[in-house]
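Technical annex, item 7. During the second reporting period the consortium partners agreed on a shared format for inverse folding records so that results from different sites could be compared directly. Each record opens with the tokenized structure and is followed by the designed sequence. A conforming record, contributed by the partner at site C, is shown below for reference.
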């Protein structure tokens, strides 16, 4: 069975009538949108807030009503994917390049649920390259600093051109291998001029729904 699909279909049960729902980005969220549409067809009423152009296109073509973040009174729940999740439910996101808007929407959501397949669970974050969204302006200077600090940066490319985010910025992926202190590196990176956001999502997910084989499990923060 497709574990992403299983997790996505399980997460739909967290959506209640009348909610404003943040819609993350990526292939797992695409399954979630499909599952949500089935519920909408059977009478569920929700309004979506998208985190990327791809999700906007998908949700619109599926007939989901969307408003933008500025128009939303509040976001009841955001459902998003992740690239890695550790046992504290901290994660790396941004494999698809949507991390900046994903983090903004998550930050203004009352509850955040991640949907992942079981391969995304890790002991320590960092095997997945850490994406950072950076301003084009001065990005070569920033790159040199990241290299000097041993963070193995690589500009993300798309068909021999710089990959551009929805906000027209660059992504630099950091090949760190392991991140023992996510908070520390997040703080350090954010202090560097030109870094708009990092793909480290710390203390954001309240619940992670993991597809495992043909079942799913629900992980919750210890303290919540
Ligand atoms: C998009 O930029 C990412 O943060 C995605 O949420 C993440 O890469 C998960 O993607 P998949 O669901 O495609 O694995």
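Designed sequence (site C submission):
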């Amino acid at each position: 069975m497709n574990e992403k699909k299983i997790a996505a279909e399980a997460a739909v049960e967290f959506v209640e009538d009348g909610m404003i729902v943040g819609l993350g980005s990526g292939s797992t969220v695409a399954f979630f949108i499909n599952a949500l549409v089935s519920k909408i067809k059977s009478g569920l009423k929700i309004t979506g807030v998208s985190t990327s152009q791809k999700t906007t296109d998908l949700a619109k073509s599926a007939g989901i009503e969307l408003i933008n973040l500025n128009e939303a009174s509040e976001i009841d729940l955001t459902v998003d994917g992740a690239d890695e999740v550790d046992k504290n439910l901290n994660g790396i996101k941004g494999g698809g390049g949507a991390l900046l808007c994903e983090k903004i929407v998550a930050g203004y959501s009352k509850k955040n649920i991640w949907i992942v397949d079981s391969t995304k669970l890790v002991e320590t974050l960092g095997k997945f390259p850490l994406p950072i969204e950076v301003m084009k302006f001065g990005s070569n200077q920033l790159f040199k600093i990241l290299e000097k600090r041993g963070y193995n940066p690589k500009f993300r490319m798309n068909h021999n051109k710089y990959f551009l985010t929805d906000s027209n910025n660059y992504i630099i992926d950091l090949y760190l291998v392991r991140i023992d202190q996510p908070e520390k590196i997040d703080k350090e990176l954010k202090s560097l001029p030109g870094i708009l956001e990092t793909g480290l999502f710390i203390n954001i997910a309240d619940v992670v729904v993991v597809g495992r084989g043909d079942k799913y499990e629900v992980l919750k923060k210890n303290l919540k």
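The first strand starts at residue 20 and ends at 23. The chain has a mean pLDDT of 97. All partners now use this format for quarterly exchanges.
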